[in-house]
Design goal:
57% helix; 9 helices; alpha/beta; five-stranded parallel sheet
Length: 262
C-alpha cells in the first residue's frame, strides 16, 4: 500500500504544480486584462480644447491727401459700426501721454525720421486686443511695404477689405488748398511733393493687395454722398456674412474671406 502511495505521490505533486502554474498564469492574464481596462481609457482620453476666438473684420483705407478718405471713413464707421483706428492718432496719443514710446516717437519726428513699423503695429495690436468691437477700420495704414510686412508678422492676419480712394492729383491739390485744413505750409509745391512721396511709398502696397484680390478701388471724384454710394455695396455684401467665420488659415486674428477687386 505504501508502495502505491509512493508511486502516486510524484503524479499528485506534478498535477498540483501544473494546476498551480495554470492558476498563476490565469491570474496574470486576468491582472493584465484588469490593468489594461483601467489604463486604456486614460491613455485615450482626448484633451479639452479652448474655444476658438472669432477673428475680427479688418478694413484698411488708403488714399492720398485730399482724396476724401477721411470723410468716407466717418461715414463707414457710422453706417456699419466699425471701430475707427488711425495710425497717426495712435502715435500722437503716445506723445500726448508722455509714455516711453511717446518720447522716442517725438524725437524721431523732430529729426525727420520715420517711426519704426513695429512700434506702430504694436499700438494697433493693443487696440485690436483690448476692444470689445470685432470690426475695425484702420485709416491710412499700411503706408509702406514695411508697414504691411510688420502687420502680417506681428498680427498674423490679413485685412478683409482694402479700400483705395483714387483721385486725380489736380483734384486733391485743389481740395487741400481750399479746405484750410491741411498743413500750415501747404501750397502747390509742397502738395505735389507730398503726393509724390505717397505714390512712391503706397503704390507697392496697393499693387500687392490688388494682386491678392483684396483691393477695392473707389472713384473719389464727386460729392461725399455720390462717392459713398460706391462704398456701400462692398460693405453690404460683407454685412450679410458677418456671422460667418472670418478665420485665416495663417492666424487666429485674420480672415481668408476674399473678394475680387475692380
Amino acid at each position: 500500500m505504501w508502495r502505491r502511495v509512493a508511486l502516486l505521490s510524484p503524479m499528485i505533486s506534478s498535477s498540483s504544480r501544473s494546476l498551480m502554474l495554470k492558476q498563476a498564469a490565469s491570474g496574470l492574464k486576468v491582472g493584465e486584462s484588469f490593468a489594461t481596462d483601467i489604463i486604456k481609457p486614460l491613455s485615450q482620453e482626448e484633451p479639452v480644447l479652448p474655444p476658438k476666438e472669432k477673428a475680427p473684420f479688418i478694413t484698411f483705407v488708403l488714399g492720398g491727401p485730399g482724396s476724401g478718405k477721411g470723410t468716407q471713413c466717418e461715414k463707414i464707421v457710422e453706417t456699419f459700426g466699425l471701430q475707427h483706428l488711425s495710425a497717426g492718432d495712435l502715435l500722437r496719443r503716445e506723445i500726448a501721454m508722455h509714455t516711453e514710446n511717446g518720447a522716442m516717437i517725438l524725437n524721431l519726428i523732430k529729426d525727420g525720421k520715420i517711426v519704426p513699423s513695429e512700434v506702430t503695429v504694436k499700438l494697433i495690436q493693443k487696440e485690436l486686443e483690448s476692444s470689445d468691437n470685432r470690426k475695425f477700420l484702420i485709416d491710412g495704414f499700411p503706408r509702406t511695404e514695411e508697414n504691411r510686412v510688420a502687420f502680417e508678422r506681428i498680427i498674423r492676419a490679413d485685412p478683409d477689405v482694402v479700400l483705395f480712394f483714387d483721385c486725380p492729383e489736380e483734384e486733391m491739390v485743389k481740395r487741400v488748398l481750399n479746405r484750410n485744413q491741411g498743413r500750415i505750409d501747404d501750397n502747390i509745391t509742397t502738395m505735389k511733393k507730398r503726393l509724390k512721396i505717397f505714390n512712391a511709398l503706397n503704390r507697392p502696397v496697393i499693387d500687392y493687395y490688388k494682386n491678392k484680390g483684396k483691393l477695392y478701388t473707389i472713384n473719389a471724384v464727386g460729392t461725399v454722398d455720390d462717392i459713398f454710394q460706391h462704398v456701400l455695396p462692398i460693405f453690404n455684401s460683407f454685412e450679410q456674412l458677418k456671422e460667418s467665420s472670418h478665420v485665416n488659415p495663417k492666424s487666429h486674428l485674420g480672415s481668408s474671406l476674399v473678394e475680387n477687386s475692380s
